[in-house]
Description:
The chain is mainly β. Helices cover 10% and strands 38% of the residues. A hairpin with a 4-residue loop joins strand 4 and strand 5. The two termini are 26 Å apart.
Amino acid sequence: MKIAAFVSLAAAVLAIADASPIHKPNPKGHAVHLTRNPHFKHNVHAQIAKLNKRYPGLQILAGSSGTVPLIDVSPDSEYYGSVSIGTPAQVLKLDFDTGSSDIWFPSSSCTTSACKAHTSFNSAKSSTYQKDGRSWSISYGDGSSASGILGSDIVSVGGIPVRQTIGLATKESSQFASDPVDGMFGLGFDTIESVSGVKTFMDNAIAAGVLAQPVVSVFLPSERVFNGKGGQYLFGAIDNTKYTGSLTYVPVSQEGYWQIAIDDVGYNGQSQGQSSQGIIDTGTTLIIVSDDAASAIHGNIDGSVNDPNNGWLVPCSLSSSTDKISFTMAGTAFNVAVADLAYQDLGDGSGNCVSGVQGGQDLWILGDVFIKNNYCVFSQTSSPSVGIAPLVGV
């Protein structure tokens, strides 16, 4: 893939003060006087459980959270989790992507080789599927693309179900054929949806009140530190055991992508005199910056070279380095281990690795190389921001 409801409940429970039987008909009706119980305490979960028991078809959810365990595709190239679609549930493996907003996967009617290589969704087997009929198409920075028709069904993530518009791919480009994931789960803003007017999963989950908090918290474990194990997307909550110190909330400067201002780049605490707007993108593997910033960073690394065929290369021995590069946002410098710049061995015997930082991008992309060093909370409040703090153990 890219390398580069909650139901409003009564405010109080009212107790009947006069419930004596009526012996004579009253032509004007009989008033039952109600009084407020001063000792009542809200228990929304208990009230919703009572409603669910009485009306089992409703299945009302209180604001809650849901965890999606992740699989790390070696070498930290992408992370995916399982998502349930339809009734009964059809389970697909999706790449959660803050750099896009569409949710899509192959339709059972798709006959391209890429679709055939993956699990597809059969809308005819879902009792909750609803036709939409609009066409959609999407393309990504690596040249991959997909297209098809829109529909609607229940999408359940970490046990949190939401009725959601979905893209059913009837065509997929060949780049997807070798990818282990079945499709994409966009977590960007609805302004970059492929079809105007479509709301994202988070839009719908927030509107339905099914999330305790309007956040998605992300822990991407590196192979180097965590053996790629334990990764998770946490919808509606924040896991404070995953990071050290306090979260710094960086304001979103433009909604669409999760765009923020990067005020400085450092190497071992020394400013490199570089700054830019950038995005924090779980769907991009590496860190992509401007050519000047990439040159400045690699200028501190002996043996690094900008190869015309492979981009920036660094010695694979860098994997044992204790140096740090940093990106300063909202007054806080967030580190990335230089060891993670030794991303993947070229395999040609040169001892060189593709660097985890590449150039060529005016709008910088802080991809997984950044996120696997820092816990990130994508907060979709009225003033969206990204909360960032160093991961425990890095």
